[in-house]
Amino acid sequence: MEVGDIVKIETDKGIFEGILLPSIDENIITIKMKNGYNVGILKENIKNIEVIAKGEKPKYELPPLNIKKNENLKTVSILSTGGTVASKVDYKTGAVHPSFTADDLIRAVPELLDIANIKGRAILNILSENMKPEYWKKIAEEIKKEVKDGADGIVIAHGTDTMSYTAAALSFMVKADVPIVLVGAQRSSDRPSSDASLNLISAVLSATKNIKGVYVVMHGESGDTFCYLHKGVKVRKCHSSRRDAFKSINSIPIAKINPFTKEITYLQEVEKSENTKNVEINTNLEEKVALIKIYPGMDGDIIRFYVDKGYKGIVLEGTGLGHAPEYIFEDIKYAIDRGVVVIMTTQTINGRVNMNVYSNGRELQKLGVIGCEDMLPEVALVKLMYLLGNYEPEEVKRLINKNLVGEIEYRSRFDAY
């Protein structure tokens, strides 16, 4: 049997006929029935199965659009790593596949032609929860290629689950005189409530502006009215399903984008491009860095486990202002005595680390724990990987609280946001 075949399946619960669909579980056969509903059937429950008719394989190839370059518009390269921003659905088979040639993108979102000349290609095809540091390096290398090839801006299509990690990694690894904008979708493009096209329009629009740095663009509220441009080192996914899941933390968004009028309203100062298209990348990362969440009753052996496995850095996601229970102090000391750089962040999302307020924090500092005053745990993780990949430990300790790419607001204007 092949996807697209019409099959008849006999089980104890009856006979089911329909089109064979792709299945993500090898133990289940999925079919689309005549009434339009999909049904999954455990293989162990099937008494008999037969092919009633062979189906035609879906054909996704379409003739090229042959769109001429508009000399009055900038060129934006859209690089796909996976996700749902411009995937296409075959409604006969139910299969979803990436559509990241330039022609695919323009067919899906023709409004892009009014904004920029579009180049598009897939560089990865993964679920974002499967992202790895080695993929961050690949993305950085591909960004460099595109800028060297003449791109005025870069858009990275990315799954939303780990997009903030990738945005932070690229912020430290890539120094480019063009905007680099990550974009995703909370709702897939086959759903009426999809946020894919408006997010993509807003991202491409942002990538044509005279700015530089790494950013994230997503819906600004649950309706289809505007999107926000967030700084790549100050943003987090704060909801599992809402379309406005991404929020700037201890900051405000960089800009508000109207995808209908194509207007951008800047909410804070942004670094301007010098129009040189210079690009440098540094992909040296120390991958043996752990992020450990502090919780009541935790066993400090987890810290010793990472130390004994040869880890060079540990980020503690502490409680409150940056605290950890006294009963794991000896385990923390065990790590620091063996040369591991241990830094402290907070799990409260909003607010800052201040390890000078309570005795717990002061004692941790005496052990050698370094408080990260204004960094999200995921940003601190990536920064520590970057620093340990490029500097000796003593220099790492000096640089961890130095603002390198906008990750630290020394005078917070946004604590009440």
TrEMBL record:
Record-level Gene Ontology MF annotations: asparaginase activity; ATP binding; glutaminyl-tRNA synthase (glutamine-hydrolyzing) activity; transferase activity
Keywords: ATP-binding, Ligase, Nucleotide-binding, Protein biosynthesis, Transferase
Stated role: Allows the formation of correctly charged Gln-tRNA(Gln) through the transamidation of misacylated Glu-tRNA(Gln) in organisms which lack glutaminyl-tRNA synthetase. The reaction takes place in the presence of glutamine and ATP through an activated gamma-phospho-Glu-tRNA(Gln). The GatDE system is specific for glutamate and does not act on aspartate.
Domain Asparaginase/glutaminase C-terminal, first and last residues per copy: 288-398
InterPro entries, sorted: AsnA_fam (IPR006033), Asp/glu_Ase-like_sf (IPR036152), Asparaginase/glutaminase-like (IPR006034), Asparaginase/glutaminase_AS1 (IPR020827), Asparaginase/glutaminase_AS2 (IPR027475), Asparaginase_C (IPR040919), GatD (IPR011878), GatD_N (IPR040918)
Entry EC no(s): 6.3.5.-
Positions annotated as active site in the UniProt record: T84, T160, D161, K237
Catalytic activity: L-glutamyl-tRNA(Gln) + L-glutamine + ATP + H2O = L-glutaminyl-tRNA(Gln) + L-glutamate + ADP + phosphate + H(+)
Name this protein carries in UniProt: Glutamyl-tRNA(Gln) amidotransferase subunit D
Domain named GatD N-terminal: residues: 1-52
HAMAP family according to UniProt: GatD
GO biological process: amino acid metabolic process; regulation of translational fidelity; translation
Group of enzyme by EC: ligase
Subunit structure: Heterodimer of GatD and GatE.
PANTHER family linked to this entry: 60 KDA LYSOPHOSPHOLIPASE, L-ASPARAGINASE
CDD domains the UniProt entry points to: GatD (cd08962)
Protein family (similarity comment): Belongs to the asparaginase 1 family. GatD subfamily.
Keyword Transcription regulation: no
L-asparaginase N-terminal domain segment(s): 76-266
Stored Pfam families: Asparaginase, Asparaginase_C, GatD_N
